[in-house]
Amino acid sequence: MLSINTIAHVVVNTVRASASPASFDTGLLLVEDSQFAEDRRLYACDNASAAEAAMLSLGFTAADEPYKAAMKYFAASPAPGRLLISCHPSSETPAEALGAVLDRTASFYGVLCCDTLSASDWLEFSSAAERLTQPVMLFVPVTGTVSEAVADNGILHKLQGSSCKRALPFYCASVSDCAALMGTAMGLELSHKGAAFALCYKTLQGVQPSDLTQAQVDRIKEKNGNVYVARGYTHLLLENGTVSNGQRYDEILYVDKIADDLQNAAVNLLAENPDKLPQTDDSTAQFINRFSSILMGYTDRGVLASAAWRGTDTGPVKNGDIIENGFLMWADSYDDQSDADRAAHRAMPIQVALTLAGSIESIVITVNVMA
């Protein structure tokens, strides 16, 4: 399967305020295997029974963490629909193992490595994930004491310092608890085809909340880590669904999905058109019209929303301008196209400005009482 990047290439630039996977609902488990052979490289499981059978056939038992991870992944609610399990030899780094899977399929988004990795190993793995043209999200289990997790040589500190947007660190008791989080994220995507979701404040099935003080929770969150805690007597909550650079998981997910949809729409327009698309501004209008229908769908789902542009000035968009419906597109005229680009039959680049709808995570309630 060849990439469509050579035909339609999408560049995503995330602008902070003043300051092609086919399956975004599928997770991948990477498992080190002492009996590795290439026929153990990839298993696709559509339910817990299939995952259990795959793990048993690979020689894992119910006492092994990879087995527990597969079971907790499918125990999530809402349930995910698919899990990929990939064995790899100890001679491969996690990044090399992930690359070997991508040589076979790109039909996944979440990635959890069941191997025992150091903070430096996770930093190297996340850096490799950042460089991939295929968007993925690493789910990073952070175990041990809080002091170890937030220390200068700890996982949270290293990932935050790298400004990684491809790693979601989760302070938990085990790798399998992190698999429950990945299963929850994949299940939410599967069950929210017509609406947006946020990972914050979700409940994780089969995971005990961490016994943390508020001060410890704050220390972990300051490093952009995530915790699963009990609030009050009845609320078991994941907080805050944050990746290592401080963005929310759903922000990264939906920008990845939008980029994937725009890329495929561009290829479809080129491939399905019975006539050629001339290098004229009329062709630009066709691309923009096709893209507008896609982006309007994200507005309807609650991913995009009308808002003021708070980034730096870009093209016709100035800081403070209102972006209606959450998106605005433009392109330069073909009158200004270079001779080289015209000879290479390139389209004029189309620029897209997006404003995300965000999600509410806290509220102040004021009660006025007349005595």
Descriptive labels:
371 residues; six-stranded mixed β-sheet; alpha/beta; 11 helices; 2 domains
Strand line-up in the sheet with most strands = 2-3-1-4-5-6
Q: How many independent structural domains?
A: 2
SSE series = EEHHEHEHEHHEHHEEHHEEEHE
Number of helices: 11
Helix content: 25-40%
Characterize the largest beta sheet: strand count, sense, and whether it forms a barrel.
Answer: 6 strands, mixed
What distance lies between the first and last C-alpha atoms, to the nearest angstrom?
A: 73 Å
The stretches of 5 or more residues where confidence is low (pLDDT under 50) are 15-19
Counted beta strands: 12
**Could you say which overall geometry the principal axes of the C-alpha atoms support?**
globular
Mean pLDDT figure: 92
Radius of gyration from the alpha-carbon trace, in angstroms: 22 Å
Description:
This protein is an alpha/beta fold. The chain has 2 domains: 27-248, no CATH class; 252-354. The protein is 35% helix and 15% strand. It has 11 helices and 12 strands. It has helices at residues 48-57, 65-74, 94-102, 119-131, 146-150, 155-161, 175-191, 214-222, 249-272, 281-301, 339-343; strands at 27-32, 43-45, 83-88, 110-113, 137-142, 167-171, 227-231, 235-239, 307-308, 322-323, 327-331, 350-354. A 6-stranded mixed beta sheet has the order 2-3-1-4-5-6, sandwiched between helices. A two-stranded antiparallel ribbon has the order 7-8. Strands 9-10 form a two-stranded antiparallel ribbon. Helix 4 runs parallel beside helix 6 (155-161). The longest helix has 24 residues, at 249-272. The N and C termini lie far apart (73 Å). Residues 15-19 have low confidence and may be disordered.
